[in-house]
Design a protein that fits this description.
The chain has 653 residues and is of the alpha+beta class. It has 13 helices and 26 strands.
């Protein structure tokens, strides 16, 4: 139980988001005693992933959280004369303007419940013709059953993969011996079953569906455990900092990944696929032969643009959009490079920003597949949990549903010396990492936050139909009006283990200028239509139909200077929530910077020792150690579609 926690640690981490989890794992790996706590009932904070019923419970918690009335603090009696307290917030104010809409048939019966769930959990939602929505509406009427134990080792809020006894073959989950090839996903088999979750993935239903499949809300509820819905929508660049860290630290064994199969563009009201690789360019029917040569010449220059400064000299101060106009590129090619390859803004990105983004895109091509991106199976929320597992392996202690009432600061040294938790226990530490959302309004009164607009849709088919229904796509819809921002659309199929078979999970993200619904609904209306009974029989409908939709705004606390926080002690470090970027580099850079503050001159997340290299007292001479990590070879028969994270260079040669 939590009241038996040790009274002293080297590092206390409050919040289980990705930067906090990476830093906690690095500190634990370096031999520091780490306590990692979170007042929430799940790992990941705003980086988490939920099953459908879990998401409804999260919405209910959001509603209840907004109604919290602060009690008189009982910890004040423990503050000594030479100390002062920094009270932490009990309210999570990072989520705003929540609106939920259900367009699927609401034939919900009282007897319908989520498969495998212990307790029914239904939600009130707006009808398709609802004209008004509020933050407090459309929330579940019952809460999920939760364990009363507040201190525990690692658990998960979503089903997790277990590569020891399961692999995916053609979108179906089956059990069998551990293998290294998994259809077209990047698979990293685990080497230790005890490090993995005890949750067993639900087997995919391989029975053939009727041609006209009417999906109802009760089906979504019943199949809710097949959904893993991310609060923040991101991808991993195949040569990004996070992939490199996963490989270096051997945390990659805790996760599996799937290639993004295609990059799309939206032009003149149509969605079309963008050629990425050299083969794609020359096989493309959208480009003329002259355009193909133009594009290849420009992309070849971008790969080594820093060697030819004369080519962009004098253009550094203008936008990348204006720079592209000066190159020998047709308007069609300019659009593809700007929005689908560099993925930069027409108005704010400089020439150097665009060239750097284009080079990064091209540099990541071919490492694990035909696009530069990977997606973690079971959702982005798996990544913080992977690093939490690493921290726990090296002795870190984890407590969910465990609130910290205040930080105790020494008046003389102005350093934080301890925390006081919900049980009134004082726990001493040298260093404290606190996620931004835990600070009170007084502490953050000078902080200017940005906002992220998010939408999550469950749809009945892909935005661009092909022969295969298992496509993972990314699409950028450019801003049309001044003061608005481009919208990033990521569409996930059922083989990513994030939605039920026969549906797609669509994430929309942009920097906020208004509420999430106001920012994103125009794009939603361009790409999708609401799901209605009358249109089910109409086979001529081209757009995918929306079954269920969620809109919300999320705080973007990235890139905020610590000097903006009032009276922040020098040994208290702030971790930000998710940013609006596509990749995770910001979180990794932040974690490494914080680690170097705590553990100067130490290696950041070094590989764990091989078991055969560990020598106990009384053993003989240590066997020769290898300088590289032993990583299984990819199966040559399936290498074209599948590869292991450890094999760095083979597929790009």
């Amino acid at each position: 139980m939590a009241d038996t926690l040790p009274s002293e640690f080297d590092v206390i981490v409050i919040g289980t988001g990705l930067p906090e989890s990476i830093t906690a794992a690095a500190c634990s790996r370096s031999g520091r005693r780490v306590l990692h706590v979170d007042s929430r009932s799940y790992y990941g904070g705003n980086w988490a992933s939920f099953s459908f019923s879990g998401l409804l419970s999260w919405l209910k918690e959001y509603q209840e959280n907004s109604d919290i009335v602060s009690d008189s603090p009982v910890w004040q009696d423990q503050i000594l004369e030479n100390e002062e307290a920094i009270a932490l917030s009990r309210k999570d104010k990072t989520i705003q303007h929540v609106e939920v809409f259900c367009y699927a048939s609401q034939d919900l019966n009282e007897d319908v419940e989520e498969a495998g769930a212990l307790q029914k959990n239904h939600a009130l939602v707006t009808s398709a013709n609802s004209t008004e929505a509020s933050d407090s509406a459309f929330l579940p009427t019952e809460d999920e059953s939760l364990s009363t134990m507040s201190c525990e080792m690692l658990t998960e809020q979503t089903p997790s993969s277990d590569p020891e006894n399961a692999l995916e073959v053609n979108g179906a989950e089956v059990t069998g011996e551990k293998e290294n090839h998994c259809d077209d996903k990047t698979c990293v088999p685990s080497t230790s079953a005890e490090d993995m979750s005890e949750n067993v993935p639900i087997a995919e239903d391989t029975t053939e569906q009727p041609k006209k499949n009417i999906i109802t809300y009760s089906q979504i509820i019943k199949e809710g455990r097949r959904f893993n819905i991310d609060l923040v929508s991101k991808l991993l660049y195949s040569r990004g900092l996070l992939i490199d860290l996963l490989i270096k630290s051997n945390v990659s064994r805790y996760a599996e990944f799937k290639n993004i199969t295609r990059i799309l563009a939206f032009r003149e009201g149509r969605v079309e696929q963008v050629p990425c690789s050299r083969a794609d360019v020359f096989n493309s029917k959208q480009l003329t032969m002259v355009e193909k040569r133009m594009l290849m010449k420009f992309l070849t220059f971008c790969m080594e643009y820093d060697k030819y400064p004369d080519e962009y000299k004098g253009y550094e101060e203008i936008t990348f959009y204006e720079y592209l106009k000066t190159q020998k590129l047709t308007p069609n090619l300019q659009y593809i490079v700007l929005h689908s390859i560099a993925m930069t803004s027409e108005t704010t990105s400089s020439t150097m920003d665009g060239l750097k983004a284009t080079k990064n895109f091209l540099h990541c091509l071919g490492r694990y597949g035909n696009t530069p991106f990977l997606f973690p199976l079971y959702g982005q929320g798996e990544l913080p949990q992977c690093f939490c597992r690493m921290c726990a392996v090296f002795g870190g202690i984890y407590c969910l549903r465990h609130s910290v009432q205040c930080l105790v600061v020494d008046k003389e040294s102005r350093k934080c010396k301890a925390i006081i938790d919900q049980f009134g226990q004082r726990i001493i530490s040298e260093h404290f990492l606190v996620e931004d959302s835990y600070f009170s309004e007084n502490m953050c009164s000078r902080v200017q936050y940005r906002q992220i607009s998010r939408a999550v849709l469950i749809t009945d088919r892909s935005v661009l139909k092909t022969d295969s229904d298992q496509q993972i796509s990314i699409l950028t819809v450019p801003a049309e009006e001044p003061g608005t921002f481009a919208v990033r659309v990521i569409e996930l199929c059922s083989s990513t283990m994030t939605c039920m078979k026969g549906t797609y999970l669509v994430h929309l993200t942009c920097t906020s200028s208004k509420t999430a619904r106001e920012d994103l609904e125009p794009v939603v209306q361009k790409l999708f239509i609401p799901y209605t009974e009358m249109e089910i029989e109409n086979e001529q409908v081209e757009k995918p139909r929306i079954l269920w939709a969620l809109y919300f705004n999320m705080r973007d606390s990235s890139d905020i200077s610590r000097s903006c926080y009032n009276d922040l002690p020098s040994n208290v470090y702030v971790c930000s929530g998710p940013d609006c970027g596509l990749g995770n580099d910001n979180a990794v850079k932040q974690a490494e910077t914080l680690f170097q503050e705590i553990c100067p001159n130490e290696d950041f997340c070094p590989p764990p020792p091989n078991p055969e290299d560990i020598v106990l007292d009384g053993d003989g001479l240590q066997p020769e150690t290898s300088e590289s990590i032993a990583i299984p070879e990819a199966n040559s028969e399936t290498f074209e579609e599948s590869t292991n994270l450890g094999n760095l260079e083979e597929s790009s040669e």
